[in-house]
Every structure is written in structure tokens, then in C-alpha cells.
Write a structure and sequence with these properties.
homodimer; 343 residues; alpha/beta; 434 Repressor (Amino-terminal Domain); Rossmann fold; 4-stranded parallel beta sheet; 12 strands; DNA-binding; Lambda_DNA-bd_dom_sf (chains A, B)
Chain lengths: 343, 343
DNA sequence: CTGAAAGCGCTAACAC
DNA sequence: GTGTTAGCGCTTTCAG
């Protein structure tokens, strides 16, 4: 229970000044010291079980070696891999991460942003879903390094890393089209989340490329990315447009909900209707019939964002690209059936 | 980009001494100041956008208002709810959590424990799976508040929170027995993880209570809590003891693997064989035929551990119970079939 | 009731 | 090469 030893203790022990001890223990400056004294100091440090006090370090250097990671909700299975990706680059560099869950609550988000700043984080990775949040913009404007993940902030020059939502939607639309589907409805995500909006826009754009007129498009928007909303919207789509042969969903959870509704109401997937997702969350291969979806590299996304943030922290702002778009890929399972085309 | 304001800035602004500002901003000591000056100071603080510097606070008070949370792997779906449970009590009290993933690597765990101590965490919640790890014991012995989750440490008087593994196994064994099963094999977890061992012991104990002799027991031990091992062990069990009618698995992932193997090899669950799990992880209800399992309240476990840790940090060590056992419950789905008993 | 001064543990400019 | 000194931003005696 005895107090942790400090530089002062080592200094007393070895009969040198604290600053000498400090230098001896710093690999950078060790060189400017006598070999002999360095050895003596290091031995004493080992003997006493010295561990540097990072709080004192932080106060002095104005650098906490800590970053904040804001995510909506860690229990949402797509976030843990992102967190590990971030950690995979941060931890070896000596950074710790403080992870906070915003629950999509912008008031909570504001408070948490303040807390992180009080704690002197060196930067923030903001895995946001909200399309606009002034708090983080303000923090960035004050000079705090920030990079956003999964979303771009229009108001400021904040570097962002996103997945190629457009390409993903195109892949999956192509896939459906290749399988003969012409009546493709979109189960869209909430408009106020960037992924929801982007995917919806991509859907419209691809549909247009295929020559489908905008007003012929069946789109039903979920208010949250949850199974229950998937069910509700699937019901809506089926009743509004019974001739629909495929539902392209904005994410996996919506797709799962839609699949459940369809199965319970005489439209089993894939026999009666084809359904696709987005994200490729874990365990999808265990859920029949196997959702065809767009695979996102969550771990890489986290690691990439972390690397950018470190660059910014190190002051290499100039070299940090404003936009980083990560590739996505198609993951085919069994939720899409090949059907006869009309001609 | 201008530097964050400090107490000194407010002092200059208001023409009082920093210590007065410090007092004015501390709700505890505000009372000993003139109402007038307090108001003036608070206004100045607001105007300047003052935010206390927690690093300086920490250094002075020798209290970081930070706790370490060690978990094996956040991508394992049972941990996020625990983390949120911890956060639900820590955050309102002003504590931040640094979450680290040990990956079950005891070397890594040692390094991380040191890192957390360097950062001056006020305590550690150790959601461990390893049955013995000297590092955390050593940290606790040095006076650092520690509580373990999901496991008890024999070597030291460290408070722990565990689930009632014994009761869980008993419930599920009873359930199988009630459904006519007499040939029940155990797909055990790794012996070096406390959950693995505890559940195995409980299984043996219950079997004994039912009058099954120990040497008649079919037990196959997985080397990791993973689907692949579930498959391997299921194969082993089926070939060693073809008359088995039920496999009681040490956790859900093993059960899922076992189910997969059985399905692919002419023993579909539940028709040919009944299978049960443990944990009730998310999305289980979407995976056919629906795994019957033991439900653990992960969020509560995290919250409980956090409350204990806070008590310890606050110096109420005396009042902290050494052992806290959380109740579990049976979650019935469709993986257990009723069969005819022999008599 | 408020000011002065010390100090938490560390680093860094400046001496010698 | 090493010691001296100052100070990061805050709290907390101790005076007055």
C-alpha cells in the first residue's frame, strides 16, 4: 500500500538530481548522460518498481496520450470491431481510448464532448450517426483534432472516413437486377443519419441509371435502424406495392425485420421475395436463409480513422486527406432468388 | 485555437486570487464566500467558457476519476452489455472508464495492468476469464481497488461478482430431465476459464444428484469457447456415445457449433438431439430452431461490480461483500424435445 | 471571508 | 554531463 515511487525517490536513492533521473529514463535523452550513471539509475528504478506518473507527464507536456472515441452504442454489434481497429493503432503508440456511448442523444453528446475536453484528450474519433452536431464542430474549431467515421460533416473541414455506400448500393442493386429483379423497393434508413440518407440517394441514383423513373420508386423509410421498423416498413411495402419482388434494405437489422415479417405473412424469403442488407454484421450466416449483404471492413475503418487522428495530433494536418473512402464488397448468401425476366 | 482558460485567467478577470476562484467554483466550499463575489466569478467563468482541467485536479488530489475495465474482447457479444452496465453507474459519478482488451493473453494483461496504473486509475474492474493471473492480484495487494467479474480469485481477498453458474446448470439439467432425457452429455468449456470449470463441476454435481455415476458421464472439453470447438466436440460425443439424446453445452457459441455439426450429420436439433446453451447472447432467437439456454443479466453484473468498486474507492472497504452472486434464469426456446422415458 | 504560498510529479530552459 | 529553477493548473493549509 506504500506510495508509488517517484523520480524524487530514485534521485535520493542514487544521489543525483531528479532532472538527471528524468533524462536517464527518457530513451530520447539518455544519450547525453554517462553510461555509468544511466545504468545506476535504471537499476534503482527497477529495484523500486518505478512507474512513470502519466498524469504529471500530461500536466507538464499538455498532452494526455488519451483519445476520446464517441460511438452511438457499443452494444450495437457493428461498433466493437471499429473500437478494436482504433485500439490496434492507438495502443502501440501509447494512447489510451476513452469510449463513450452517445445513444444518439445530442444533449448527452454535448456533455460527453465537454467531459472529454476537460480530461484533455488529444483528439476525438467521432463514430457518429447524426448528420449534424454542432458540439463536435465547435471542438474542432477550437483546435482539437477530430476525425469522423461513417459520416461527413458539412460545416467544417473535419477529415472523415466513410465506406463507399454508393458503390455498395450499386453492387447490390446490380446483383438484384442480374437475378432478374425489376420491382425493387427500398427499405430506407432514417433520413437524419448519414448512412440512411446516403444509401437512399444511392438507391435513387442507381435506379435512375437503370431507367426507372423516380416516381415509380417504392421507398419506405424506417425511423430507426431496428428490426421492428423493418417489419413495419416491409408490411407497408407489401401492401402498397404487392408486385415487389425484392426489397433492398438500408441495413442488416432492417432486413432481418423485413424477412421476419415476410416469412410470417406468406412471403417467405427468398422464394416469394428477395431481401438484401447492408453491413454484414456477425452471425448473419447462422440466420436462415442467409442474408445477402454488403460487407464493410469495420476494423479497417477504425484503424484508418485512428491513423488519421494520430497524424493530426502530431501536427501533420497538411498531409491528412479530407476524405477517405473505404472499399466495400458484396457478400452473397441465399436471400436473393433468380427470377424470370418478363420479356 | 486559443488556449483554454484557467483559474488564473478568471482571477485576473475578476481581480481576485486564484484560490478564491477555486473555492467559488467548488460547490462544497462555495458557502464560505460572499454571495456577491461568487456570482461575479461564476459569470466570468461562464463568459470565458471555463472548463476545469481534470489533469491538474488529478495530480493535486491524487485521484484520476478514471477506472480501468479489463475484458477479454469487446467483440465478444456478451461484453458490451457489461460495459454499458459499468458505465451506467460510473459516468453519473464523474468517472471515465478506460476499456482494454486482454485477448486472454496474460502477457498483454500484465502490460495493460501497468499502463492503467501509470495512468493512475482509481480502481479496476476485471472481467476476466483466466482463472489465475498474478498481475491483478499484485495490483490489489498494493492497495488498488479491484473487483472481478465472472470469476473469483483464490489468492487474495478481492471482491467478486459472479453469476449463479451452479443454479443455471441445475435449471437446464432439470429441464432436460423433465423432458425425458437421461443420456445427457456435457460439452464443457476450457478448464482454465472459471466459467468452464464451474459449469463442468456443476454438471457433475447435478448428475450425481440424479444418481448418475461419475464414470458414466460423457464429457468432452472444448479448448476455446468457439463454434469450431463446439463442432469438434459434438462429433466426438456422437461417435463415443451414439445413444446420447441431449448435449448440455457450457455456452451458446459451443452450442451453436454443436448444433451445426449435428444438423450436417444426420442429427438435426431438436428432432434427433436436444442441445442447450449458456449466456443467452443477442440474436439467439433468430437462429433456428431457437436455443434453449440460461439467461445472464450482463448489464446488471456490470452495474453491480461498478457499485462495489465505487464503494471501495470511497474507502468503505469494510462494507463491501467479498462475494456477490447474481441470479440467472432459464430461457426456453425450441432446442429441447420431449422424449419418451424408457420405463 | 480572502490572500499567500506550497506542492502534486514531471520536463525543459538555462546555467555551469 | 549534470544541477538549478521554474512552472503545467489545480487544491489546500495557514495567515490575517
Amino acid at each position: 500500500m506504500s506510495r508509488r515511487p517517484t523520480l524524487k525517490d530514485i534521485a535520493r536513492e542514487t544521489g543525483v538530481h531528479v532532472s538527471t533521473v528524468s533524462r536517464a529514463l527518457d530513451p530520447q535523452k539518455r544519450s547525453s548522460l554517462t553510461e555509468e550513471i544511466v545504468v545506476k539509475i535504471r537499476q534503482a528504478a527497477d529495484r523500486l518498481g518505478y512507474r512513470p506518473n502519466r498524469i504529471a507527464f500530461s500536466l507538464r507536456k499538455q498532452k494526455s496520450m488519451t483519445v476520446g472515441v464517441m460511438i452511438p452504442d457499443i452494444t450495437n454489434m457493428i461498433f466493437p470491431p471499429i473500437v478494436r481497429g482504433i485500439e490496434s493503432v492507438m495502443e502501440p503508440l501509447g494512447y489510451a481510448s476513452i469510449i463513450v456511448n452517445t445513444d444518439g442523444d445530442s444533449d448527452r453528446e454535448r456533455r460527453l464532448t465537454e467531459t472529454l475536453q476537460e480530461r484533455g484528450v488529444d483528439g476525438i474519433i467521432h463514430t457518429a450517426v447524426l448528420r449534424s452536431d454542432p458540439n463536435i464542430v465547435e471542438a474542432a474549431r477550437q483546435g482539437l483534432p477530430v476525425v469522423t467515421l461513417n459520416r461527413k460533416v458539412e460545416e467544417a473541414e473535419i477529415p472523415y472516413v466513410i465506406n463507399d455506400e454508393e458503390a455498395g448500393i450499386r453492387m447490390i442493386f446490380d446483383h438484384l437486377h442480374d437475378h432478374g429483379h425489376r420491382r425493387i423497393a427500398h427499405l430506407a434508413g432514417p433520413r437524419d443519419l448519414s448512412t440512411g440518407l446516403l444509401r437512399r440517394e444511392a438507391f435513387c441514383s442507381v435506379a435512375r441509371d437503370y431507367g426507372l423513373s423516380a416516381d415509380a420508386l417504392v421507398i419506405e423509410e424506417a425511423s430507426r435502424f431496428e428490426e421492428e421498423e423493418g417489419r413495419r416498413c416491409a408490411k407497408e411495402i407489401l401492401s402498397r406495392s404487392p408486385e415487389t419482388t425484392a426489397i433492398l434494405c438500408a441495413n442488416d437489422r432492417l432486413a432481418l425485420g423485413a424477412m421476419d415479417y415476410c416469412a410470417r405473412n406468406g412471403h417467405p424469403c427468398p422464394d416469394k421475395i428477395s431481401i438484401t442488407g447492408f453491413n454484414d454484421m456477425p452471425f448473419l450466416d447462422l440466420i436462415p436463409p442467409g442474408l445477402t449483404t454488403v460487407r464493410i471492413e469495420q476494423f479497417d475503418a477504425g484503424a484508418t480513422a485512428a491513423r488519421l487522428l494520430v497524424q493530426m495530433i502530431d501536427g501533420c494536418d497538411g498531409k491528412v486527406p479530407r476524405e477517405t473512402v473505404l472499399p466495400v464488397s458484396l457478400k452473397c448468401r441465399n436471400s436473393v432468388l433468380r427470377i424470370e425476366t418478363d420479356h
